[in-house]
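sorry to bug you again but im stuck and you know this stuff better than me. theres a chain ive been looking at and ive put its sequence and its fold in token form underneath. id like you to explain what the token line says about the fold, in plain words if possible. anything you notice is useful, everything is just below.
___
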Amino acid sequence: MNRVTTRKIRVGNIYVGGDAPITVQSMTNTDTRDVVSTVKQIRELESAGCDIIRCAVPDIEACDALSNITKQISIPLVADIHFDYKLALKSIENGVSALRINPGNIGSRDRVKMVAEAAKAKGIPIRIGVNSGSLEKELLGKYGKVCADALVESALRHAEILDSMNFNDIVISIKSSDVKMMVESYRKISKLVDYPMHVGVTEAGTIWRGTIKSSVGIGTLLCDGIGDTIRVSLTGDPVEEIKVGKEILKSLGYREDGIEFVSCPTCGRTQINLINIAEEVERRLVNCKKNIKVAIMGCVVNGPGEAREADIGIAGGKGEGLIFKKGEIVKKVKESDLVNELINEIEKL
């Protein structure tokens, strides 16, 4: 897949857009004013593989907390601000790596110019975040409803404000909980501008439903080559967002760190408890950083073939299984010992 060519901008100690790897983001759900809890959650997200983190900044107290938070984390922090340009200016002073703010929502042109100039002086990019739930009334009146064209026009209006001030370090996101609308919006705007795209389905839902919606929406765009950084929005522990985001990228070959896990759905031919085996193997390898493909297959029909393409895997039999490495049989093992023996062989790789 060829990615759509976008500008390359710096966000803290990493890059977004251009030839930079696609990054995975999340947002804290702690009270930003609670520095201890917020830092703890960010560190957990860092450990899970989060590349960029965003924090809500609803007031000056939250803004002041950013100064302590940024000193205790390693990944870039984006300040999420609505309406108050003073919070944007203060966040820049307090060490954030980027802003999420819509220029058209923070008042006069002079206020926008102050934010743009402060951000430019510090090399801080601005993400324009258009959301179907907060579209301008004027555009709702023009189009009669929320639609892709209205969302794109909104994003372009905000970008043009910054562009007119010679501020070009811009990232654009156009999010909707409607997957088809979200996909259409990104496809339209990616043909009109070369700004990096932050891709995601907003308010996607709980971990189960949200994972499905996000995978469909984000995956479709990535297959089109659209997307420079992604965020999976889930109702739950934000660490789950990182897990899903990484798996989406890995499934499309955009990320190679950690285990690629393949397992069959089982059928009437399966004669071992493959479901329990697969779940235990996945659980025990959750923190494995080895860049390998592991296949857990239930029978000899597809098992040996899949195991042959994997770095290591098993193919089940009746109460036992074969362990393969690069298509070669390593050993035959009783069902009760399969997981331990497989993990032992993985540790040798």
Q: What stands out?
A: The chain has twelve helices and 15 strands. The chain has a mean pLDDT of 90. The radius of gyration is 23 Å. The domain at 9-251 is CATH 3.20.20.20 (TIM Barrel).
